[in-house]
Amino acid sequence: MLTNTKHDWTKEEVLAIYNKPIMELLYDAATVHREFHNPNQVQVSTLLSIKTGGCPEDCGYCPQAARYHTDIKGNDLMSVQQVKAQALRAKSSGSSRVCMGAAWRNVKDGPEFDQVLEMVRTINKLDMEVCCTLGMITENQAHRLAEAGLYAYNHNLDSSEEYYKEVISTRGYQDRLDTIGNVRKTNVTVCSGGIIGMGENVEDRAGMLMALASLSPQPESTPINALVAVEGTPLEEQQPISIWEMIRMVATTRIVMPQTQVRLSAGRTDMSREGQAMCFFAGANSIFAGDKLLTTPNPDVNQDMEMFKLLGLEPMKPFVKKAQPASVEAQYSAYQDQGEKPRWTRPEHKIERNEVAKEAGKSLKAGV
Ligand code: SAM
Ligand code: DTB
Ligand code: SF4
User: Fold this and answer.
1) Amino acid 337: pLDDT
2) Residue 319 CA to chain centroid, in angstroms?
3) Distance CA 304, CA 141 (A)
4) What gap in Å lies between CA 263 and CA 285, rounded to an integer?
5) Structural domain range at position 347
6) Are residues 287 and 349 in the same domain?
7) Which long-range contacts (CB under 8 A, 24 or more apart) does 347-351 make?
8) Which of 54, 86, 122, 260 sits at a 20 to 30 Å CA gap from 345?
């Protein structure tokens, strides 16, 4: 469980981080990242849409809402055998986690939920982390998922409390928080993040991060999605965000939630390798791999593995324990001490930098 972290970020503080000069922001985020994570390791998850389309909700971004006329092919709940075959394929291509998504408003007790529990048990036996995103769940359902061996439950806040109402009317922000609270009553880890590029402003982005960071404990993983504007949804006309917005969002997430796994999620098909490399530098340490997200395209897994090789990244093994955090004061001082004092005061950091600087100085003198 993630502990000892600053939770009382104000929207103004988060916004000030988001708006920093990019070099400062990258430096700060990369410094925090190295404090808590191995910067060369990236956790790889594979998404599996176990029940597609026909959802009664009205989320303005979602191609699976029954009320919008999109091109997706709907499917009833997959069988346990189908899921097992897909999980084995994902494992052989380097994935440590399978995330099963269902286009449900909420989970209903009965044969379908029993089947999902069996899927969880089956993937768990393959020594992979299992995640589910099934909509709203009760405390009892959260406990049943935990007993089946669920590792993580994904339930996004998606935007700020204020902007949420502009995008979804069939449920409220508090409903999302309640489900996250139900998951927290078990030993299942929380995966919660959101989407940028839905027409929200930077204050909304800061508001969403403030809400996520104020959860105690903070989510163990945080997906940052760029909207995939799907034809037929109310957000079909939204212009794509720039890579700099994604980099800023990832970096800010890393700073306010130092221990979370920040997942570079939907939208990677539009990002260059250089852009993604900047996101990894800024603290992203997880991706969804596989040529499909739930219903929309994602980069081919071979292309991703080539990118990993190029950048010297390696896929993380499942069930890796997280490093223990430094003190809250150490985290926060990194953002308050603007320039006068060295930000990172641990002796080994200073020595490392001085030696690099000395070597660089020698090379310059020698004209290398
Ligand atoms: N029905 C469940 C729910 O809403 O929690 C689980 C599935 S839902 C598809 C999971 C998440 O996918 C959403 O919370 C949203 O963040 C993301 N998502 C859906 N459509 C998207 C899109 N077009 N672009 C980016 N992210 C999207
Ligand atoms: C999350 O935050 N992003 C994933 C996962 N959690 C379930 C889903 C992205 C979906 C993108 C649109 C689609 O493929 O349907
Ligand atoms: Fe349904 Fe989830 Fe899509 Fe909303 S995001 S319409 S709840 S599948």
Assistant:
1) 45
2) 17
3) 35
4) 6
5) 328-360
6) no
7) none
8) 260
Q: Where are the alpha helices (DSSP H) in the chain?
A: 11-18, 22-36, 80-92, 111-124, 139-148, 161-167, 173-184, 202-213, 243-256, 273-281, 301-311, 328-336, 347-365
The yes-or-no answer on residue 121 being catalytic is no
Catalytic residue chosen out of the listed positions 176, 184, 191, 254: 191
Ligand 1 atom closest to the Cα of residue 235 is 23
pLDDT along the chain (368 residues), means of 10: 75 98 98 96 97 98 97 96 97 94 98 98 96 98 98 98 98 98 98 98 98 97 98 98 98 98 97 98 97 96 96 92 45 45 37 45 44
Euclidean distance between the first and the last CA atom of the chain, given in angstroms as a whole number: 48
Q: List the beta bridge partners of residue 297.
A: 292
The verdict on 229 and 349 lying in the same domain is: no
User: Is 2 contained in some domain?
Assistant: no
Measured from the CB, is residue 252 less than 6 Å from ligand 2? Answer: no
CB distance 268 to ligand 1 below 6 Å: no
Counting the structural domains of the chain, the total is 2
C-alpha 332 to ligand 3 mean position (Å) = 36
User: For residue 229, what is the domain's CATH number?
Assistant: 3.20.20.70
Ligand 1 in contact with 288 (CB < 6 A)?
Answer: no
SS3 215: coil
Whether 220 and 337 map to the same domain: the answer is no
What is the structure's pLDDT at 4?
A: 57
Identity of the amino acid at 196? I
Closest-CA residue to 279 (of 253, 241, 300): 253
